[in-house]
């Protein structure tokens, strides 16, 4: 299993795979916004936001585990980005 630091550093190398919309959602996740709040801010339905979040986590290869929460990993990934 990768360490926390190795996981989010590896994820930063994949940030360029995200669309502009996905990066915006990642930013809102990093700010602690819920999926419902993100949906409201971006004028999307909640299902669309759930799909975007799943796609972001998949592209960044951020998989949940008992020790690592994907939202925490998303925040760390965004903070690590240039």
UniProtKB/TrEMBL annotation:
InterPro entries: Sig_transdc_resp-reg_C-effctor (IPR016032), Tscrpt_reg_LuxR_C (IPR000792), WH-like_DNA-bd_sf (IPR036388)
PROSITE patterns reported in the protein's UniProt record: HTH_LUXR_2 (PS50043)
Family annotation (Pfam families): GerE (PF00196)
Gene3D superfamilies registered for this protein in UniProt: Winged helix-like DNA-binding domain superfamily/Winged helix DNA-binding domain
Coiled coil feature spans: none
Domain called HTH luxR-type: residue spans: 11-76
Record protein name field: LuxR C-terminal-related transcriptional regulator
Annotated organism of origin: Nocardioides ginsengisoli
């Amino acid at each position: 299993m990768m360490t926390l630091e190795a996981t989010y550093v590896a994820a930063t190398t994949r940030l360029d795979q995200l669309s502009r919309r996905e990066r915006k959602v990642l930013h809102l996740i990093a700010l602690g916004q819920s999926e419902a709040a993100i949906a409201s801010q971006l004028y999307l339905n909640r299902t669309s936001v759930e799909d975007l979040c799943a796609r972001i986590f998949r592209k960044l290869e951020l998989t949940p585990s008992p020790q690592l929460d994907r939202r925490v990993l998303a925040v760390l990934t965004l903070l690590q980005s240039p």
